[in-house]
TrEMBL record:
This is Piriformospora indica-insensitive protein 2. It comes from the Eukaryota. Residues 1-26 form the signal peptide. PANTHER family: LEUCINE-RICH REPEAT-CONTAINING N-TERMINAL PLANT-TYPE DOMAIN-CONTAINING PROTEIN, OS01G0149700 PROTEIN. The keyword Repeat applies. Pfam families: LRR_1, LRR_8. Coiled coil: none annotated. The keyword Repeat applies. Keywords: Leucine-rich repeat, Repeat, Signal.
Length: 481
């Protein structure tokens, strides 16, 4: 048996406390050696904050080193000697500036009604990596970047994220905004007054992973250089004034693309077959353009990662193709107002088991509503309004309790619903209270046919005549006489 002396336990405790105190002292010493933000950069932060909202006393609220105690949205990073990566911290600099209150989780400095874009942003922060403005410039005075950012001394090669969201007074040509930043990884300019074409040199931004330019005043055609962005994951050009054909080879180099949104523009011509090479694509929105393939693209069958696809408002026409067997990940399909003809493929109900939305309204579809739609367990809406569908809307009762409330069927005069289904919807049954049957007529009940009377056989297998037949034969004999 091993015996522990009380002194041994006490000695171990004492030794541990000494080691712990040494660690704390060492940590404090290291912390004390971390340099503070230099006075010039700190002053620049105060002045930028004042330009965004002069009504807040920034200097008195944050009187200490802004890299140790700063408002949310001002972020610093610590730097060591580049020649000795493991050396102690030698400098600290502002690397992120975010303005405009977003939410309680991201309470950036709120912008006043007269917020301005300070030139100091482009001259005083040589290590800036992210610049973010959200709903800051909503006044009548235009706000824009300096004419030549590089000439006024900014370290344009460091900025990686440029994000301006919902700033209608922020104006300028896209060429003028992007031309001085060579290290951009993420560009989000949404809901601003940015105008002009996409410059050809954008293809030189080889680090770019996201290019979101939605809801601006951009125009022109997509430059061929855009297809050189091999690291691009998100491309969103929606709600602008772009025109012309999409480059036919655009899909071949953008192999990393996850989202492609060209919706609500004036693109025309054929949807490039090269889009079929976008094997990782999850979101495709080409709706409300002037594309005219005269058919739904067959390359959809190759996009096995696809979750959402929208082609509504184009002049595609033709039949809905049988491309659904390998698209089991699809959640939403928007094929409204495309001039589609023919029947709705039953395979959509068989293979699209994760579907939550299907829009086929305002087309020229014919035939019946596929009973296979009753297999869709996750669907929230099926809009088939304003087509030429006909026949009985029929699902087994066990499936209708799930699928009935998702259906929108108005504008199909040839369709009919059973009396019990219509009454269930009219009375607000939980299973059908959201169904839109429009002015669908009730199906005519099929006439009941009388059950045939089986003929009995005698022991000699001869047919036995009923009594009425004997009466009839007797009358014939009397008449002959």
């Amino acid at each position: 048996m091993t015996l522990f002396h009380p002194f041994s336990t006490l000695s171990l405790s004492f030794l541990f406390s000494i080691l712990l105190s040494n660690v704390v002292v060492s940590y404090q010493q290291d912390y004390e050696t971390v340099p503070a933000l230099n006075s010039a950069e700190q002053e620049a932060v105060y002045r930028v904050l004042d330009s965004v909202n002069s009504g807040i006393p920034w200097r008195s609220l944050f009187p200490d080193d802004l890299c140790s105690s700063a408002p949310h949205g001002v972020v610093c990073s610590y730097f060591s000697d580049s020649a000795a990566p493991n050396s102690p911290v030698t400098a600290v600099h502002v690397t992120e500036l975010s303005f405009g209150y977003v939410s309680d989780n991201t309470p950036n400095p709120p912008c006043a009604a007269d917020a301005a874009l300070s030139p100091l942003l482009f001259t005083s922060f040589k290590f800036l990596r992210k610049l973010f403005f959200y709903k800051c410039f909503n006044h009548s005075t235009p706000v824009s970047f300096p004419d030549d950012v590089a000439a006024v001394g900014t370290a344009a090669t460091t900025l990686e994220e440029l994000v301006f969201v919902d700033n209608p007074s922020f104006v300028g040509s896209l060429c003028g905004i992007l031309r001085n930043f060579t290290s951009l990884r993420r560009v989000v300019l949404t809901g601003n007054g940015v105008y002009g074409p996409i410059p050809e040199f954008v293809g030189g931004l080889v680090n770019l992973e996201e290019l979101t330019l939605s809801r601006n005043q951009l125009s022109g055609e997509i430059p061929l250089g855009l297809a050189e962005l091999k690291n691009l994951k998100v491309l969103d050009l929606s709600q602008n004034f772009f025109t012309g054909n999409v480059p036919s080879t655009m899909g071949y180099n953008l192999s990393e693309l996850l989202k492609l949104d060209l919706s609500s523009n004036g693109f025309s011509g054929k949807i490039p077959d090269s889009f079929g090479a976008l094997k990782k694509l999850q979101f495709l929105d080409l709706s409300f353009n002037r594309f005219g393939n005269f058919r739904v693209p067959m390359f959809l069958s190759e996009m096995t990662k696809l979750k959402e696809v929208y082609l509504s408002g184009n002049h595609l026409g033709g039949r809905i193709p049988e491309v659904w067997e390998h698209l089991g990940n699809v959640l939403r399909i928007g094929f409204s107002d495309m001039g589609l003809e023919g029947n709705i493929p039953a395979s959509m109900g068989v293979f699209l088991r994760n579907l939550s939305y299907l829009g086929l309204d305002n087309n020229k579809l014919e035939g019946t509503v596929p009973q296979e739609f009753g297999l869709l367990e996750s669907v929230g809406e099926i809009n088939l309004e304003n087509n030429s569908l006909s026949g009985r809307v029929f699902f087994p009762s066990s499936n209708f309790s799930r699928i009935g409330h998702t259906l929108k069927l108005g504008g199909n005069p040839g369709l009919c619903v059973d009396d019990e289904v219509f009454c269930s919807a009219e009375n607000g049954n939980n299973n059908t209270k959201n169904a839109s049957f429009g002015h669908l007529k009730l199906c005519k009940k099929e006439p009941q046919r009388p059950n045939p009377v089986p003929l009995e056989e005698s022991s000699s297998s001869a047919q036995v005549f009923p009594d009425s037949m004997f009466v009839f034969l007797g009358l014939l004999i009397l008449l002959n006489f």
